[in-house]
Amino acid sequence: MVTIEKHVSSAPKLIKQKEFGFSGLQKVAKQSIVLVALFLLWEIAPRIGLVDPAFFPSFSNVVIAWWNLVISGELFTHFLASITRSVSGFGLAVLIAIPLGLIIGWYPLARELLNPVMELFRNTAALALLPVFMLLLGIGETSKIAIVLFACTWPILLNTIAAVGNVDPLLIKSARSMNISSFKLFLKVILPASVPTIFTGIRMAGTGAILVLIAAEMVGAKEGLGYLITYSQYNFQIPEMYAGILTIALLGVLINQSLSMLERKFSKWKQNPNGQN
Amino acid sequence: MATAEKIRFERVTKTFTVRDTEQKGAMKEFTAVKELDFNVKEGEFVTLVGPSGCGKSTLLDLLGGLTTPTRGRILIDGKEITGPGLDRGTVFQQYALFPWKTARGNIEFGLEAKGVPKHERKEQANHFLSLVGLSDFGERYPHELSGGMKQRVAIARSLAFNPDVLLMDEPFAALDAQTRESLQSELLRIWQKTKKTIIFITHGIDEAVYLGERVVVLTPNPGMVKKIVDIPLKNRLEDADIRSHPDFVKARHEVWSLLHEAEYLGANI
Ligand SMILES: Nc1ncnc2c1ncn2[C@@H]1O[C@H](COP(=O)(O)OP(=O)(O)OP(=O)(O)O)[C@@H](O)[C@H]1O
Ligand SMILES: [Mg+2]
């Protein structure tokens, strides 16, 4: 049952806005303080001999190595290789899994038939299948894109199926009462209602894409950020290795943030401070 | 006022198949509404009262063509209802607005379903937004509207595609007394202006008597027509204190008595 909503009066809102500048700063400070401390520790620990600088170079050395990789263009080559693979695999997964998920979600029979297979596959770690992919598709681009595609497919597919199945029946009823065709119902009601949940799947897939790709590149590749790391390690270019790791971390954060932003944008209408529709 | 018959219930019964609580795994028939048999005239405002669970929403779903009667049939303009249609507009018990569409988008949805061209939709949406007093809230999403506003958008959405019959399922139940009263008179005004046939479900005896030209009183499970009470009130809108009018009080008492007879004991009204 619906209760009477309490509207926030404008006065407290104003006060909140005034505080925002200060509390915003405070927030940034809070969020960065531990990070800064960590980098400081990283800088100092090798210098005072807490760890062996040969295996754990100081932060500034890593940054210098990173900068050199940037200037030489080497980092960009690897970055481009990785991003091309992950975007291709991820993009293909989006193109395949969303339509497939919509169909499976819409037809109960399809869902019942495919459920066991999907359960099995989604619980199979993508990396466990890496040898199979390499045996079948070689160590070239195909196998890497394929493994990213595989890893990305499941979260998107399963979320899409769940999204279609969880559309509020009342909304379907409401649309049906206006005598619209099944096709229109799907296009105008099922699809928009599913978007937020589908985007949650897309965000999960995006995070997974990088993870799986880097691992695949570490096993067998001629370029890419994963390759950069293992290659540097073999050649004892330890600062470069850390530079590669740092780049991946940054890339991961970047992808996650932008996908989260997209997710928020598409589920804006879901924000429901009163807990009701 | 036109007196042509608009809706006719012919011994309408609806049963559902439900799990049997006594026998594990077994199913049994559950009768929601039984042997409904009454008419509604064109342009008439009929209210329906009955205890919770007596089958009011079920009756409305049948009228809306969303479900079909198990026995009997319902006619509109002499034709049997076989499915949903834009000749009927439903305002559901829980708003049922599309949360990803603005108030305006929700109103335009029905117009689009009807095939109204795009440029006309906007104009008509404006008209109905102002009709329900929400001209300034067209671009708001449902979660940015209060309960009463959402309800008004839902009403505007149903009015917009201009159905002959308006089916309303406890549309004002969730509102505070003031908002409810103002929406009630708004609805009466709209009804007088548009001459629509309105079937209005409510829990409120006052509301039923205030709005309805006739009040259909249903029995608790299974829902059957107990009595149809005529409400001889004329100038509901002009008389500010109509609720104290002797005719109102008398009609109110009659409906109240009907709902408090022995068979309702224990029923949640
Ligand atoms: N799809 C269904 N399957 C089984 N039983 C149902 C179904 N829909 C309704 N019922 C049952 O039919 C009866 C009537 O339900 P209905 O929703 O019409 O009641 P109502 O009069 O609208 O009640 P309220 O005033 O609480 O809204 C209830 O006992 C309900 O449990
Ligand atoms: Mg109901």
UniProtKB/TrEMBL annotation, chain A:
Q: Which Pfam families match?
A: BPD_transp_1
- Where is the protein localized? Cell membrane
Q: Could you tell me the keywords of this UniProt record?
A: Cell membrane, Membrane, Transmembrane, Transmembrane helix, Transport
An example Gene Ontology biological process: alkanesulfonate transmembrane transport
TM region(s), chain numbering: 28-45, 65-83, 90-108, 120-139, 146-165, 185-202, 209-229, 241-262
Specify whether Membrane is a keyword of the entry: yes
Q: Boundaries of each ABC transmembrane type-1 domain copy?
A: 79-263
Recorded superkingdom = Bacteria
Q: Listed GO cellular component terms?
A: plasma membrane
CDD domains given in the database record = TM_PBP2
Q: How does this protein lie in the membrane?
A: Multi-pass membrane protein
The record's comment on protein family reads: Belongs to the binding-protein-dependent transport system permease family.
- Please give the name of this protein: NitT/TauT family transport system permease protein
What species is this protein from? Psychrobacillus insolitus
UniProtKB/TrEMBL annotation, chain B:
Keywords on record = ATP-binding, Nucleotide-binding, Translocase, Transport
> PROSITE patterns attached here?
ABC_TRANSPORTER_1, ABC_TRANSPORTER_2
- Classification via Pfam families: ABC_tran
- What top-level branch of life does the organism fall under? Bacteria
Which intervals hold domain ABC transporter?
A: 7-245
A single GO molecular-function term is:
ATP binding
Translocase in keyword set? yes
- By its UniProt entry, which InterPro entries does this protein fall under? AAA+_ATPase (IPR003593), ABC_transporter-like_ATP-bd (IPR003439), ABC_transporter-like_CS (IPR017871), ABC_transporter_ATP-bind (IPR050166), P-loop_NTPase (IPR027417)
Q: Which SUPFAM superfamilies match?
A: P-loop containing nucleoside triphosphate hydrolases
Q: What is this protein called?
A: NitT/TauT family transport system ATP-binding protein
Q: Tell me the organism.
A: Psychrobacillus insolitus
